[in-house]
Design goal:
Order of helices and strands: EEEEEEEEEEEEEEEEEEEEEE
Strand content: over 45%
Radius of gyration: 29 Å
Shape: elongated
Strand order of the largest sheet: 5-6-3-10-11
Helix content: under 10%
Oligomer: single chain
Length: 281
Amino acid sequence: VFRYKNNSNVALNNVQVKARFSGEAFNFGLLRTNGSFNSYDRTVSWNSGNAPELGSVTAGGSGVLEVEVGVRGDLNISRLGDKNFLLKSEAEIRSTNSPSGSVGLVSLAKSETKMAGEATLDAKAFYRDAAAGILNSGDFPLQVGKTTQFTVHWILKNYYADISGAEFSARLPAGVKWTGKVKTNSTNEPMYDENNNLVRWKIDRVVATKGVISEPYEAVFQVEMTPTVGQVGQVLDLLGPTDFVAHDDFADVTITASDVKVDTNLPDVATVASSQKTVQP
C-alpha cells in the first residue's frame, strides 16, 4: 500500500508514481494492480491514465495506491547462505510542477519486510527398527494380553531462517507407556512428563537449511502397549498429534507446525499388511 499526500499549498499536476520491487522471494505471476507492470525492471507505474486522481492532487489532498504480489513457496535452497529473505519496495512520486516552481522528485519512500522462516516436522512409528539402534520386542500384529514395543521418530527440517527455543510435544494415549529408551542427534534428548503423559523434545537452536541440505535433527523414543480384549479388531493410537513451536530469529516471530497422530497402521512401513494393523485375540 502506497499512501501519498500533497503537503504543499498548491495543486500538483500530472503526478506520476513508480514502485520498484526487489528480492528473489516475490512471485510476480500473482501480481494484481491497476498500475502498469514492467517485468524487466520489476516496477509498477501509475499516472493519470490508469489512476485519474493523479491528474491533479489538490493542496492537502491524499490518496492510496495498491499492489498485490505473491510470495514464492519454492525458494531454492542449495547452500548455507540461502536464508534471511527480504521483500523490498521503493516508491517515488513526481509531478510536473512543485511549490518551488521547479520540476522534479517530490518524495521517495522505502519499505523492507523480513520473510518469516518455515520448519516442517514428521512423526513416524516403527515396529522393526534396527536402523534406530533400539530393539523392539513383542508380537506384531498385536495380541491381547501381550506387550509390544514401538519406536517413534520425530524429524525436523528448518528452511529459511535460524530458529531458537524449538520444542516438540505430544501426549501418550491411555494404555501406552514410556520405556525410557531414547536416541537423538541433537544435544537434548526427549523427556517424558509422567504426570501429564506428555513427551517433550527441546532444541536450543536450529540453523537455517538444517535438514534441507544437511542431515535433519531427529529424536527416537520407545513406547509399549498391552492390548485388552475390548480392543480386538481395532487400530490403536501410539502417540497423539505432535505440536511444534519455535522463535524465528530473523523475522522475530513465533512459528508453529504440527503432524497427525501415529498409530498401529504404521503408514511409513510399506510392508505392513492390513491384517497386521489391528489387535488379534
